[in-house]
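Re: Re: token formats

Sure, here are both.
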Amino acid sequence: MGWASYEEDNASRFHQATVIRNKEHDALLPTKEAPATKLKAFAMPQPRPLPVIVLADVSGSMSEDGKIDILNNALKSMILSFGAESKLRAEIQVGLITFGGEVAKEHLPLVAADRIAGVEAFRAQGRTPMGSAFEMARLLLEDKEKVPARSYRPVLVLVSDGAPTDDWEEPLASLKSSERGQKASRFAMAIGADADRAMLGQFVNDRETPVFDADGARDIVKFFKAVTMSVVARSTSTSPDQALALDFGSDLSDDLDLDAL
């Protein structure tokens, strides 16, 4: 079918730079009528963080057939959906790590989805330093300030259309054997015929969700829709720490104009 450009309906809500909304807390400040001691007694339980970290291939090959544009729009849609969810039990947080050029980069710091007003669009260029991305993800998960001990089981999402161009075996092994890396739900999508499916298969840890093959625009969107539904289901369940497999059988027609892809 070939790749096609996919324009997200809500793209206008995003800018070309990452902007984090300032949260107003004036209503929670103590007053004469409601001193801090009394407010504390009626404080609502704080939701626990549910981290979702995407490791995205932005190497030069992703510029072919509009793949990078489709990836950008699919991620924007996912973040919008996360931001609209209730935070009764879990606060969905999103972090984006990109690998293209010589080293991986933190494209978006791990932050609550409802505070993300815009994400700078990915630009495809250079090589595929996937090992660098694995190391960055491990360090992020081990950072107790960014991912506190009270956080729910993290979700790691790996997307690539090629093979690593740096040393990746040891960084991947370290990520998988780390305390939080081995507990995380790890999903992967192979885009196109040149993706290294055997390598991506070493990343995933859910027998019910092997590496997802994306052969076109619809498949990329379908994958991120399934990730979205899985994370949302966890965040609203009575046991958000329970891992859920991705469901690729759901109907996307209510959310996407598939004929336009």
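Second one below.
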Amino acid sequence: MSEIEERLPAEASADTEREDNEPTDDGSMSLIKHLEELRYRIIRSLLAVFVGSAVSYYFIDIIMKYLTLPVGKLYYLQPSEAFFTYLKVAVAAGFLLALPVVFYHVWRFFLPALTTGERKVIAILVPISVLLFFIGLAFSFFFVLPAAVKFFMGFGGEDLQAMFSVDRYFDFVLTFVLPFGFVFELPLVITILGKMGIIGSAFLAKHQRTVIFLSFVIAAIITPTPDVFTQSMLALPMILLYEVGFLIVKYVMRK
């Protein structure tokens, strides 16, 4: 009996420790396990960004060739400017390459706290959100950015010649293109809110004028230049995407 009595507390202690380190039936984790999982996901995401940056730096000449297509020849004003700009371009491109991996680890981190139905929905929404983000970047880079650069270069003349610094030009491209990636998530956000019953077609129709006004305000805040042309290039797609979300809620979801 004494051996049995001594073994029972030991087994109970082992069971308790195992329960603390494993997800329970309701998807909860212990704090230590949760932090370990977070560290694991962050490390894997950073490794993906590092690998993507290394690959991007290997093809940096090709990337810079496409980046400079709208403007042509660039200049650098400091000895180290070109080198550090190349590094920034490689890291930015590496992050974009690693974005699906980063989204995957974010999804996996929150997975234990989700129900089966929520997991199915997230498994669909994550790829769609990544796809919409890249569509927004491509739309901005191939259609909006060349028009914006041509517009600004049109102010030049015989006495005023444009000479773009490679560092300033890359900062302009980055701050100009990235907002379009987030703006293209708008129909998805509206669809999710409509599916949750938070908004409906009547609500969206009622606030259309407000959205038009706020689109230009937001565009004025996040665009790199204060001119109306650049603001309109961001505000108009934002309004159009809002209308797309409105049509989805009204005619597809019928809410």
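The chain has ten helices and no strands. Confidence is low (pLDDT under 50) at residues 1-26.
- S.
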